[in-house]
Specification:
Order of helices and strands: EHEHEHEHEHHEHEHHEHEEEEH
Mean pLDDT: 94
Helix content: 25-40%
GO molecular function: hydrolase activity
Largest sheet: 8 strands, mixed
CATH class: Alpha Beta
CATH architecture: Alpha-Beta Complex
Structural class: alpha/beta
Organism: Metabacillus bambusae
InterPro entries: Inosine/uridine_hydrolase_dom, IUNH, Ribo_hydro-like
Keywords: Glycosidase, Hydrolase
Number of helices: 11
Strand content: 15-25%
Pfam families: IU_nuc_hydro
């Protein structure tokens, strides 16, 4: 069992479920590890999420394997339960993709437990929408955080949203308390590879893995993933120019875009958000502003220094 070097009052702790498309890129792993090293969180479980079909037909299974690998490196595989989420997106807004991950959300939400429950989504929001459609009573028993969506007020292309627009619309029109950390905000989590080499790589097997898998992914994108995406698009009858991907990744930097879910649960950044009426999302991922009753928390700022320094400090405290 992981022992934290300090503790906080029990009344300040919260239950947390992490829903993660962990094998999509290289940033989910940092957020998962950061959360596991945080005394405030009582991690109820981790749900593996799909990340579409651009690169593979087995994205959820790959995420499941990656989550277990991270837990194994931290010697926590027997301590944290991992659940399989939906294998794919909703086919429409009336047909949920049920999964053991969605069932787990329902079961945890309906528990008689005084600790607040938060569910953090680092990829598509499929499993929350499915859980809500099966059991609407969960809406007033949890708070959801979602890394996803384009910038307010227009919206636009964003990867996590692209992977299940239907589910996002279900959640947006629900009554679930929702914190949205959109693309323009999560991209504030800018780090350099040199910074990670100094502050992450030296600290335990997990620190070395976090650093190395990001470096390796940098090469995999160029040498493997982009050619695969281009070929799969062509097989589906779509022409994709490889030059469309030339700007990503940039080479010496990355966005640890999933990490805000940790820091916002340590301090909710009251200066960093506004309550906004939930829009409807179109097929091309733009926002239609049609109502003023359903309000959600929309972030326009996250403190990247606070987030990163907390993660670095916890790695050093545990593995220094």
């Amino acid at each position: 069992m992981l022992k934290h070097p300090f503790d906080i009052p029990e009344s300040k702790k919260v239950r947390l479920i992490i829903n993660t498309d962990a094998k999509n890129e290289a940033d989910d792993q940092f957020a998962i590890v950061h959360a596991l090293l945080t005394p405030r969180f009582k991690i109820s479980g981790i749900i593996a999420a799909h990340f579409g079909t651009l690169r593979t037909d087995h994205s959820m299974e790959e995420s499941y394997e990656e989550v277990n690998k991270v837990l194994e490196l931290m010697n926590l595989k027997d301590e944290i339960s991992v659940y399989k989420g939906a294998k794919q997106a909703f086919p429409n807004e009336q047909t949920p993709e049920l999964s053991e991950g969605a069932e787990f959300i329902i079961n945890e939400a309906m528990k008689d437990d005084p600790s607040p429950l938060y569910v953090a989504f680092l990829g598509p929001i499929t499993d929350l929408a499915a859980a809500y459609m099966k059991e609407p009573a969960i809406a007033d028993k949890l708070t959801a955080l979602w890394i996803g969506g384009g910038a307010w007020p227009e919206g636009g292309f964003e990867f996590n949203l692209m992977n299940d627009i239907h589910a996002a619309n279900v959640v947006f029109r629900s009554t679930i308390p929702l914190w949205v950390i959109p693309q323009n905000v999560y991209k504030m989590m800018r780090v350099s590879i040199a910074e990670l080499a100094v502050n992450v790589k030296p600290y335990g097997e997990i620190g070395n893995y976090l650093y190395q898998q990001l470096v390796d992914f940098n090469f995999d994108v160029v040498n493997k993933h982009i050619p695969t995406m281009v070929e799969r698009a062509r097989q589906a009858g779509k022409e994709v120019d490889p030059k469309d991907y030339e700007g990503w990744p940039k080479g010496e930097m990355w966005h640890l875009g999933d990490s805000p879910v940790v820091s916002l649960l340590l301090d909710d950044h009251q200066y960093g958000y506004e309550m906004k009426p939930a829009p409807r999302i179109t097929e091309d991922m733009h926002y239609v502003h049609y109502q003023t009753e359903r309000m959600i928390r929309w972030y326009h700022l996250v403190d990247s220094t606070f987030t990163l320094q907390d993660m670095y400090a916890k790695l050093k405290l545990h593995y220094g």
